[in-house]
What we know:
Layout: E1 3-7, H1 14-23, H2 28-37, E2 44-52, E3 55-63, E4 71-72, H3 73-82, H4 87-108, E5 115-117, H5 119-138, E6 143-146, E7 149-150, E8 155-158, E9 161-164, H6 168-173, E10 179-180, H7 192-201, E11 210-219, E12 230-238, E13 252-263, H8 268-280, E14 285-292, E15 298-306, H9 311-321, E16 328-336, E17 339-346, E18 349-357, E19 363-367, H10 369-379, H11 383-395, E20 404-405, E21 422-424, E22 433-435, E23 448-449, E24 459-460
Parallel strand pairs: 1-6, 5-22, 7-10, 19-21
Antiparallel strand pairs: 1-12, 2-3, 4-5, 8-9, 11-12, 13-15, 13-16, 14-15, 17-18, 17-20, 18-19, 23-24
Amino acid sequence: MTIGILDPFSGIAGDMTLGALIDCGLDPAWLHALPARLGLDGVAVEIRDVIRGDLACKKVDFEIPPQPHGRHLSEIRSIVARSDAPPAVRNRADAAFMAIAMVEGEMHGVRPEAVHLHEVGAVDAILDVVGSIWGFALLGVDTVYCGPIALGDGTVESAHGTLPVPAPATLKLLEGQVVQPGPAGSGELVTPTGAALVRVLSSGPPPSGYILRRSGMGAGTKSFRGRANALRLIIADPVGPHAGAGPDGPDTHETIVSLAADIDDMLPEYVAAAADALRHSGALDVVLLATTMKKGRLGTRIEVLARPADAARLEELLLAATTTIGVRRQFLERRVLPRRLRSVVVLGHRIAVKETTLPNGETRAKPEFDDVLRAAQATGRSAGDIFALTAEAVQARRFEPDAVPAGRNTPPGGGQEHARQSRPEGPDVHSHHDHDHLQDHSHDRNQDHEHDPRTGHDHQHDRPHGHS
Length: 468
């Protein structure tokens, strides 16, 4: 098991996160290839060695050509869904953009689907979010923790008057995290993209002890006198009950929060929609159970599993998205088997496979159904045929070279082949809201925000927004 610890002593932004990942060993060539891999043609990646407060750091910038138009949430989610990123990466990136859209919509009184990102800011955010989440997976990091987040201080001028730092949407994204104001005179230190990454990646405060393996520094754009404006990332092995002890690491016992509510006055379609919203907002799992309520009324129990840092936010969403007037909460201990995401190629299509290590050391594998269905539709074969061909490829160990951890407790060195074969699992084989807040890389330029006065707000920043 490998853990990552974010140390945002000078805030966090997407470019800082990518820089820290590069400094910890993420392949720069992979990042240079990422824009084209996501279908964002013409975007150049610049990675530089810079000094921040006498400390050597990596600085990542994107050179983005003029874009034909901005992008709504649905367009961004489509780009993520079409990518060849592992399913776990795609799901977490989707949750990050859903979180941003939900809080922006809440702040400005529009639906999340109506939130509209400006041309450059949208491309910037896609690369930051997908690149950071995928980068952690490629480094073999199973669990990410986050230390106290420095928020900055001061105010920002807008057409609506003087707004406090951090911006309201950024502060909303940071709910449940440990934060601290300052340092004095630093201005705005946390961008919405940085806050969204913490929200979907962090499992809470860092552990009290760990075995340090390496560390890296990702530079912000601002340069302060006498201190480093950078994000520090620590890669480590855990100690104590959560430490790995073998080539695949043992299973993990962890504390999670269970949220539950019983509902008997909602149409089933809307209960299902609420469950989807909870999944997209970072719930570990959501299940719907049939139940019988008082006076014999048929009802549905929604049970949500959440990380402790996400519990309060998901509880609020459960109350807002359903007709329940109360939510039960309890802490649970769960056992999680080590697993990793691998992939095989079937009829020219990449199929993601989740490989789980059992307590006896054997492994079993299950293809991701979305990939199976996509390959079936593209080739005209049945889903059962694609599953059978995938199972055959798994048995023959014809895995693609990249092994990506799936969830927690995936061992470092996940690309090595197991001596034992995997047992496949599966079926029997017979208005409009414009926002530029997401731009993390060009913080030394003034940001102009223009909004439809009927649905949003108009404001112009008189000084740089974010790290400058």
